[in-house]
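Quick entry, no commentary yet.
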Amino acid sequence: MDISQLQALQPYLWTLPKTAHEERAEVLLYGSQPLLKSMDEKVLEQITNVATLPGIVGAAMAMPDAHWGYGFPIGGVAAFDAEQNGVISAGGVGFDISCGIRCLRSNLNLADAAPLLQQLADRLFETIPAGVGVEGTLQFTPQQLDQVLAYGAHWAVKQGYGDTADLEFIEENGCVAGAQPYNVSTLAKQRQQGEMGTLGSGNHYLEVQVVEHIYDQATAQAFGLHQGQLLVSIHCGSRGLGHQIGTEYLMMFVKAANQLGIHLPERELACAPIQSPAGQQYIGAMQAATNCALANRQILTHLARETFGEIYPHAVLETLFDVSHNTCKKETHEFHGQTRTLYVHRKGATRAFGPGHPQLPARYQTTGQPIIIGGSMGTGSYILAGMENNPAFASCSHGAGRAISRNQALKKWQGKELIKELKQQGILIRTRSMRGAAEEAPGAYKDVDIVATDTEKAGLARRVAFLKPKVCIKG
């Protein structure tokens, strides 16, 4: 990105000055100068387009991991007020609705578990369905899926996938209100019939990680973390159902925008007023997809526990936290001294509630919400904690963020060679797609250390622990 067009407001906060007669909200980008320079130019164009949407409150913001996406940049955050004709955008939520990360802490240390890690990797690869079009053992009719869409992780626990203790540590306690399964098309449900309890492909993964470094000992203790401990992170979303909802409502919103005279600088920014029939219909479908994703990660948690139990009979996996990063949430925020009800779009951005937030479980009331910044399969990930006075409507980075496209990655790396190199580094990769492995090469991502550091320096969240991958199951 050419940052000569930006103005530094603080060392880790930048804005794009308006030109004469330009009508839009403020544009803010978080990150250090080197990180912003590494972003593609499209990020600035897209977040500036977001700033033109009706009813936006405050600024359109790009997190430190931002990169090009459909309509909104990934790493984009924007809040809208329904009472001021604010809009909801399917492109602002993303096609993989409620994609997120479930992090599990184990009672195992790497030193004890290491002799059986290869066996664990092989069994996880057999038991965790992953890959393009790969289905799981569960099969649903559209009518049966309605129960999943209505009750989320609660449905999964009721069916025996995990237990009620998990629910306290899932956002919205595992079930978002307002889900309308009947706003989801039959085609979307058909696409999901065999995909519950599956990872999918692309950047989705199940990763066994070791806590390699602690930055904040007190918060790590509150999170139940210690150096050398094994964790499991599950990164996936609402699979085919969410993608179909995103596709269908994007088309509906394009037509609605034309009828309502909403100017769309980019087709993928298609949106509708929150209070319009189309807007309300999408919100009901989006909430249903969110429940689908929460149930999906709950089933995968159960499968991971079963597999760990086979290899390590005394293993216990507890849910540390589960939070989505492709959502639009109705939330209450203080803005310019007023309490406002806002619809906060976070596309590739994680909710990051600070200490004392009423929606956090008692365990995290003094620390703030656990946040997972997922890195690449060869570098590492971070656990952070939410901070008071987060300036971005309680949002922060969600991952390392791509540095180059998948096509560019394919020209630079080969899957087999990459997996061999990672094995030499002590990281076991199991995948059905060598092409997919090459697309997800560690070098295709930004430096996760810089992203996490900049996230902290920008006042969005503070680092608690660094995790190093040991086993990665990819689609």
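second:
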Amino acid sequence: MLFIDPHAHMTSRTTDDYERMRQAGIVALIEPAFWLGQPRTEAGSFKDYFSSLVGWERFRASQFGIRHYCTIGLNSKEANNEPLAEKVMELLPLYICKEGVVGVGEIGYDDQTAAEDKYFRLQLDLARENNMPVQIHTPHRDKKTGTIRSMEVCLEHNIAPGMVIVDHNNEETVRDVLDRGFWAAFTIYPNSKMGNERMVEIVKQYGTERIIVNSSCDWGISDPLSVPKTAALMLEKGILEADVRMVCYQNALTAFGQSGQMQESDWLENTEVDQREKFSDNSVLRGGQTPVIGEIESSNDLPSNLIR
């Protein structure tokens, strides 16, 4: 089975992770622009980061047989630094229409401050003007209120629900998101947000329409194999393969494919890798390594499937 991980912060991960993800069947991923763990102090830091998402990281993924896409945006946490946020907003139009950018994201609320609200709305306008999907980060605190508020603001800005992927859902928010016609994405984390056993129950209760599974793997404790592990557990629990494919592959393709930047042929054709290639005179290899040239095969040999 092939998988798409539509939320993976690969800037924070190693080449070993890319290798394991491809072996587990992940053929494409989406990397949302996000908070790097330490506040940035210069707009130039954002410029270099955005450039990496559309440049080096795409190349790095390709060297392991994975197609890399990204969403570009000002994250909610750093929206609270208004002088910096103003400068980042000037950068966004330069990046959101570049090759491989499939949406504006991840944007939304963290502490639900006035500054977060201001820049969330400005970025929604940017997405609408460019007919781009929106990837929303929902807050960790007071999640239900923040989730509902995010959707209401989208509607105020005339963003169609079908163009919005609401992320980091749980049992408390899923009904509200689906009832309003938005995409409901779920992050499978080892210790928080959503475990894959809980995800199995979500699919059993709500079905597969507009539901998406992702890992949101980043610099914290997280698992880049969350999507294939959750898929394996769904199959073990009796969910049909066609339904597993829908929530772990097809729905992400349908939602972000609305950008016009992401097609299935991207990874079904041109499947060979050549690790002798370079990006800005840099390769993923280190001294003495033998480059991989040709097809990369998937394997079903996963470590423990359970993320409780």
